[in-house]
Amino acid sequence: MNVSIAHHHPLIRAALVRSLSGRGEFAVAGHGGADEVLAWVRTRPRSVVLASRTLPGVGRLLAALKGDEASRVPVALLGEATATRPAVVGLPPGASGYLPEDADADALSHAVHTLASGAAVLPASWIRHTGAVAFGAEERAAGASPPLSLREREVLVLLGQGLTNQQIGKRLGLGAGTVKSYISAVYTKCGVDNRVQAALFAHGIEVLAA
């Protein structure tokens, strides 16, 4: 999968490129302007773009990449940490989500896969502020699900690190069946459907269906 990191600040851009490239699962390129990104993605149909919300020409970039829905390139904006209120930042038309610039490699990787699948990613704090609903968010807000137990929180953290069931069991000293039971409970209580969504949830990011 191709990923373009579009950021006008060279140090931040280089750090993000290095973070994602180090995982060995993406072809990552850094770009300092909208025109560079457009030229890059036009020769790479299977791409995801992570662009600074203050990138010069970002509005033009979003409009150009939105294009035909059949060949749309998803774009998530990068900016302040998740505590930032959505009313302050805003999410312009054409954007498929928002990610904090200080997100770690695991969170970025999970977000890229989610964006490529056609879903949107938003900080959990935005979900609460705007009333937007991710899978199971209404139930969580209403208190229908009990809080995670200590062991379930440990499992969620390890899911966020990308560990397999076998690795989680080894780390926590649990059998395969017990790990599956804990993961099932985590899915139910967090209102997620799969490992990628659980991993994003562990990083404070929720998924909105397309």
Please provide a written account of the structure.
The protein is of the alpha/beta class and 210 residues long. The chain folds into two domains: 2-129, Response regulator (Rossmann fold, 3-Layer(aba) Sandwich); 146-190, Winged helix-like DNA-binding domain superfamily/Winged helix DNA-binding domain (Arc Repressor Mutant, subunit A). The protein contains eleven helices and seven strands. It has helices at 10-21, 34-41, 58-66, 86-89, 105-116, 124-130, 137-141, 150-160, 165-172, 176-190, 195-202, and strands at 2-6, 27-31, 47-52, 75-79, 97-100, 120-123, 205-208. The strands form two sheets. The chain has a five-stranded parallel sheet, sandwiched between helices. The protein has a two-stranded antiparallel sheet with strand order 6-7. Strand 3, helix 3 and strand 4 form a beta-alpha-beta unit. The radius of gyration is 18 Å and the shape is elongated. The two termini are 20 Å apart. Mean pLDDT is 80; it is low at 82-88 and 127-144.
For the structure shown, list the relevant keywords:
2 domains, single chain, alpha/beta, 210 residues, Rossmann fold
Secondary structure: elements and pairs:
Blueprint: E1 2-6, H1 10-21, E2 27-31, H2 34-41, E3 47-52, H3 58-66, E4 75-79, H4 86-89, E5 97-100, H5 105-116, E6 120-123, H6 124-130, H7 137-141, H8 150-160, H9 165-172, H10 176-190, H11 195-202, E7 205-208
Parallel strand pairs: 1-2, 1-3, 3-4, 4-5
Antiparallel strand pairs: 6-7
Helix pairs in contact: 2-3, 5-11, 8-10, 8-11, 9-10
Under CATH at level 1, the class of the largest domain stands as Alpha Beta
Overall, the morphology is elongated
The assigned CATH architecture of the largest domain is: 3-Layer(aba) Sandwich
For the record, give the distance between the C-alpha atoms at the N and C termini, rounded to a whole number: 20 Å
Examine the coordinates and then state which fold CATH places here, giving the name of the CATH topology of the largest domain: Rossmann fold
Instruction: Write out the strand line-up for the largest beta sheet, numbering strands in chain order.
Output: 2-1-3-4-5
| Integer count of domains | 2
Q: Identify the CATH homologous superfamily of the largest domain.
A: Response regulator
**Can you give the helix content as a percent range?**
40-55%
Strand proportion, as a percent range, falls in 15-25%
C-alpha Rg, in Å? 18 Å
* Unreliable residue runs: 82-88, 127-144
Decide which structural class fits the backbone.
Answer: alpha/beta
Mean pLDDT: 80
Give the count of helical stretches: 11
SSE ordering: EHEHEHEHEHEHHHHHHE
Number of strands: 7
Q: Give a quick account of the main beta sheet: strands, pairing sense, barrel closure.
A: 5 strands, parallel
